[in-house]
Every structure is written in structure tokens, then in C-alpha cells.
Amino acid sequence: MSRLSQAQLRRLTAIHGWSGITLGLLLYTVIATGTAAVFGGEIGRWSAGGIRAADPLEVPIDARIRAAATQVDPSHLDDIAIWAGEGRDIYAFFHTQAENPGTGAPDDLGTILRLDATSGEVLERNEGFIWDQPAAWDGSALRRFLVDLHVQLYMPTPWGLIVTGILGLAMMAAVISGLLMHRHLLRDLFVAERPGWRLVSARDRHVLAASWSLPFAFVLAFTGSFLSFASTVGFPLLASIAFGGDDEAMSAALFEPPVAEDATPAPLADLDAILADSRARAPGHVTFVEIARFGRADARVHVWHDPAAGGVLYVTNLYDGAAGTFLGRQPQVGAAPSVGGTLYGLMYPLHFGHFAGIASRIVWGALGVALCFVTLSGLHLWTRRRAGAAVWDGFARSVDIVAWGLPLAMLAAAWGFLLSVPAADPFVWTPRSFVAGAAAAIIVGIAAPDRGSLLPRYRRLLGMACLGLPILRLAAGGMSWADAILHRQPDVLTVDILLLLAGIWFLRRRRRAGRLALEAAE
Q: Residue 17 pLDDT > 70, yes or no?
């Protein structure tokens, strides 16, 4: 191998440093947005502001769905999907399969109605290829944006999923290499932080947080990679090899029990009775209902439930749509229960912490914050060891900008959402506001004369953004605290109070004397 000159070595070192820093910051972005996505339901209800006295799928809906079925094209009755909105509304999507001219692939074409679950009034109606119109099926543009940002970095499908899948693999590599590096893992679990703000103190904090986070980080990385690659690589490859490229045949074999075709007209059984029976068999909340072949003798009704108390897997009960009889519990994958199907069913709840109610989500959120700290503290250790060189000081500045700029941009997205709700399209202005917030954070970071003045500026901006959001939500017509208490809407109160506390904390936090470096990870 030829020897490199000093200039070439410096260039390669810079390339290596930038690639490592970029990978670390992308991982931080996925982890931080994932921490927010864990609370997507709470954020959606806080931002949408609808009053929910009871889950819309817990009240009688049979008459609502039958009446709605008379208002749509009969060709759209092949499949009906029903799910709850953020308030007391439900969505009923009547659809069939057709080729989407935008993608050239089969897609769901039909009519989606947003109904008042109590009165049956049609609140909104949309037609066409509905999945191309997020405003037609999601009541919160803010929640949708944050989830998309985590799942695919707001990139086009499937490239965003592929990128996040690769990042998940990189995170698994970091976890495994970190485990091999920590020769004294049990001792590191209880390492005492050395006082002060020396480099060894920062290392102690990083080692302590990383040691406790290793199992959780591996679970997140593995499940995240699986979910990203399953739809972009795994299932398409399976369809190509085993089903001759027929995606519909693959879906039928994996997720739909075989049914003898019988197009004889037959009325649907009492949907309320079916749901009541399903709730008796699976105590978790009903989250989704699907009616296949509505009005036919071979109709089938699938009822999805949240995991029961103490459980992790989602439950799907299957019913004969015409007779209303229970046909059994549908496996996660395939026609019979299997270890592979169970493992597949574990991926989503383990990734997002959706298996033990709010308690598991709080734990997942706290561990997500810990992983953000581990990622950023590791990047800061890397740059602090090389402080003094212009290129590494630039790396350190970029870490600060992304570390503080990402939450600032996410708050800017929330501001843009609330400002656009009364008169504009939130699904347009929420991502635009995120970009504007990110640009502002970059400008602030570049304009700061040194790192010592950077943190107070970001802290001040974050504090004001947090304190202003509850006020802006009320000004935009959101639910008052009095109504939230009266109607028992804890999500509104909880998010508002957390924002106010965070704003006060950011504004009142004082700089600690003797600190050698202001770390954005803290």
C-alpha cells in the first residue's frame, strides 16, 4: 500500500470524521423523533382538540355504517375499513382495488367518510386514492408529520424506509461493538461519575447511560430495521420468489384466511353484536374494524384489539359477516399460529412501546431520551478529544446545531400547525414550519461567536417556544383547561403542563461554573 502524504491523510481524516458525525446525527434524529412518535396518540388528541367522552368504537356504530354504505358507489363496498378519529368521530373507508396512475401499482380506491359516532352526521367526505390525501384520513397533521419524520425521515417511499432501516443496522452494530468494548459491563452499570466537567467526567456519564441503555437500544434497532425492510425488501422479495410477483396473492396467503367465494346477496350481521362479542373475548380496546365483501354471503369481519393488560401482542378476531358467528382468533401471519408469526407480531409494540398503556410509553419515552444523551455525549467525546483543530471544532459546532436545532424545529412545526389550522392547510404548513425552524436554528448556530454563547441562545428560544404553544393552541380555538377538566380530557392538560414546565426549565436553568464545554447532550 502506498504511503499517504500529510495533506492526503488530513483530507481522509476529515472525510472519516464527517461521515461518522453525519451518521451519528442521523441516528440522533431518528431516535429523537421516535421518542415523540411514541406519544403520537397523545400529541394527536392534544393538537386536534376534539372532545372524546368515550372511544367512538365503543358506542353503537352498526346503524351509522349501514346508512353510510347507501351513500357510496356500490363498487366501493368490496372492503370497508373503520377506525376512530381524535374526538368522537369515526372514519369509514369504502374501497376497492385499482391501479393508481401516480405509481402504476394497485392501490385502494374509494370513498372515505368522517362520521359523528353519536349522531351519524357526515362531517367530511373524500373520494379517490385516499392514501395520497393524508388530510382525508388523519385528524392531526402534526402527529402525521412527526411519525413520518421518524419512520422515513420525510423522504419519498421507499427510500426513506430504506435509509432508516440502514440506520437501524448501524445502531445494532454500535450496540454490539459497544458491548464488546465494555469488558467490565457490570461494573460500568454502577460507575460513579467523577466530579467536575472534565473529559473523564463526560466519559463517566456516557458510559453509565450507555451501559443501562444497551438492551433497549438493541431492541429498538432490531425492530426498527425489521419494520423498515419488511415492506421495502422482505415482502416484495417474498412476492417475487413465491408468488410470481403477485402482491395480492401474497397478502391473501399471509394475512387473509381462505374463504369459499359466494357472491349471493346477504345482509351483514349486527355489527354492534359482533363488536360486543369481540370485546368479551379480547379485553383490549377495539382499534380497527374491517368488513370484507359487504352485503355478500362470504363476508368476513376482522376486529383488531390493543394488547390486553399484561399482554404484548395485538389481537385479531375473525367473524362470519353474514351469520355473525365467531370463527376464531386470526394468527399474526399465516393460517395457523407459529413462532414466526408471534415474532412478527412483537415488532410494532416493542418498537413503539404500545403494549402496556401509557406506562410502557412513558418508559419507552424516558429510554429514548437516554439514548439521545448517549448518542450526543458520544459525539461530544469524539470532538472534545480533538478540540483545537479547526475541522474538529467545526464538527463540534455542527453537533450543537443539530442537537438543539432538531427539537427547536419540531416545536416550530407545532407552531406552524396551530397557526394554519384556522385558515390554511396544516398538512402543507407543518413541514414548511419545520424547515423554517431548522433554518433558523442553523443561522443561530453559525452566527454565535463561540460555543459558550450558543447554548443560552438555544435555551432561550426553546423556552419561549414551549411557553407559547399552550397559549397559541387556545388562541387557535383549542379546548380550554376548564373544558378539558369537565370532559376528562387528560391529554390536553398533560401536554400543556409539560410544555409550560419545559419552557420554565429552559429559561431558568443557569450555567454551571467551571464548565469547560457546553454539551448539547445535557
A: no
